[in-house]
Amino acid sequence: MKRRIPLRKRLLVRLLFASALIAVCSVAATTWLAVETTTRALREEQGQDLADDLRILARLSGYAATHPDWKGVQPLVTELAERTGRRIALTTTDRDLIADSARKGTALPLGAAATVDPLHTDTYTQPGAQLSGVDPRAVGPYRITANERSRLDALAGKLRTCTSRFGVDVRIEHTPSGRPVLVNPDGSDGSDTLAADCGYWMNEPVPTEKTAMKELTQLARSCLQNNDQSLREPLHFYLNPAARNPLSRYLIADKSPKAGNEQAVKTAQTCADSALRAQLDPYVAPVADLYLGGDDTTPPRFDMSPANKAKIIGVVGLVLAVTVAVTAVVATRLVRPLRALTEAAQQPPDLHVRVPVTTRDETGILAEAFNDLTERRERIEAQRKAMVSDIAHELRSPLTNIRGWLEVTRDGVVDPDPALLGSLHEEAMVLQRVIDDLQDLAAADAGTLRLHPEPVRAGDLLDQVAAAHRVAATGAGVTLRTETDGSPWLDADPVRMRQALGNLVSNALRHTPADGTVTLAARRDGDEVVFTVGDTGTGIAPQDLPHVFERFWRAEKSRSRRTGGSGLGLPIVRHLVTAHGGTITAASEPGTGAVFTIRLPGSGAPQE
């Protein structure tokens, strides 16, 4: 039964609501902008100086950031009022007077011009802006001691002297907490530009900062726990004293699995911001409202006439109607292919349903991606079934032999003589080889195949592989030769490379008749080292060449695994070569043998 989508959650309804909201907001924002612009023009005509207002707000915010209360603010208010010619009044949020430049009993303006809150503004770096940050002058427990400042100043002087030797001209400035920083001519932080070369580090927190940051970490951790935020490792804070934005002075490092989760990172940042404000709150003055204006007048207001209001309402209605109509048409076209995708996705997986691609826009691209995913899933399912069947086939024969011999031995039909035990051991080794090969392939597929690269001479690899297979080659009557052109070197895992080349040599020996030859060669080709393993065996048919690196594939289906291998050697070779950043190819002509070529990035000889 198809689940019915609630009306409020349908994409069409949400698009209509979003478009209507956007239209209303756009018209309202435009109207507000026009009114605000007119109001500013009227204020400028009446001699009001916005720059003075911003400076007043910045000075008062700075006072609040550096004092725990407003007790001594009256002299500052009086000074600012005399300098700007404005009436300045500060009140609590309940309109209780804190300080006023006007005579006692003068009524306050109708509305506050701004809110002075150093924990929710940034008038220091961006004068007058009411942002969500913290005034950088609110340093509280982060203010370093005189001894710490003296030590950092000496360190800054040394680093400045060192950087000047490299032709870098920097100057020393101090943050509100008293910490010195080096500033480049363009205003960027220069504390770490040549710190490694000079051997002096400026951004290491001092004991005072470490103590404060430890408290900040505890506060943030409590917030995260309240938000059910689990951490695999502790949350760390790093000091970035050169940052202008106060919240960016403390960088968060979260190494938990949720670090890539946008919501988790957002929650961590929110907790860090809340913790910083809670930590600084005892060191700053309470929130206050700022009133600006004349003694007996209020700031001018811009009032719209009824005719203008009617025009605005009419325009809003027209824009809203057009927006809803256009959105309805567009949304209907968008929803139709999405419904087709939903219906296809709800079909049973074994049907591998595709959807028609009717457009070339984002929805059409999504449909193509869905069809590609369906095709890949179908191929993977077929490969999975084939692989399960092949693995069962590979394990069935040796297990059947082992079981049969054990049963006849148990029944007393055959004595457990050394020959029988040797046969059983041989069957167990076949099983072990298949399991080891499957384990290597599983590690390669999972990306856990470990490599330990080191400088290796190609000639040494060939000699070691040839020595390991010399006895098998002699027993098969096959000549095993090595050829090295020059002395090429490469960075590779010698164990894994011997395994890859050994698999190729074993495969060549199995397919080369007596009196034949297997040749291992290495040479340098530009920036690459080329290994070749060639034989004079029966070769590989052209139609079989594309399949030689597939798992459990054999050109001769009648071969047993005792003579034809596990069918996993060449796939393992391909994974090992790919892990080294190289490629492998196969070339053959029936009756003339086969040649496998490995190309790996080369390197220079190691320095003695």
- How many strand segments? 15
Q: How many domain modules?
A: 6
Name the average pLDDT. Answer: 76
Q: How does CATH name the architecture of the largest domain? A: 2-Layer Sandwich
CATH topology of the largest domain: Heat Shock Protein 90
The whole-angstrom Rg is 39 Å
Number of helices: 14
Structure description:
Helix 8 (306-345) packs parallel to helix 9 (362-410) and helix 9 packs antiparallel against helix 10 (418-446). Strands 9, 10, 11, 12, 13, 14 and 15 form a seven-stranded mixed sheet that branches. The chain has 14 helices and 15 strands. The protein is an alpha+beta fold and 608 residues long. It has six domains: 7-43 and 303-341, no CATH class; 47-138 and 285-293, no CATH class; 140-198; 207-283; 367-442, Signal transduction histidine kinase, dimerisation/phosphotransfer (DHp) domain (Helix Hairpins), CATH 1.10.287.130; 450-603, 2-Layer Sandwich (Heat Shock Protein 90), CATH 3.30.565.10.
Topology:
Layout: H1 11-45, H2 50-66, H3 74-84, E1 87-91, E2 97-100, E3 114-116, H4 146-165, E4 171-174, E5 180-183, H5 195-198, H6 207-226, E6 236-239, E7 250-253, H7 262-280, E8 288-293, H8 306-345, H9 362-410, H10 418-446, E9 454-457, H11 458-476, E10 479-484, E11 489-492, H12 494-510, E12 517-525, E13 528-535, H13 561-564, H14 569-579, E14 583-588, E15 594-603
Parallel strand pairs: 10-12
Antiparallel strand pairs: 1-2, 1-8, 3-8, 4-5, 6-7, 9-11, 11-15, 12-13, 13-15, 14-15
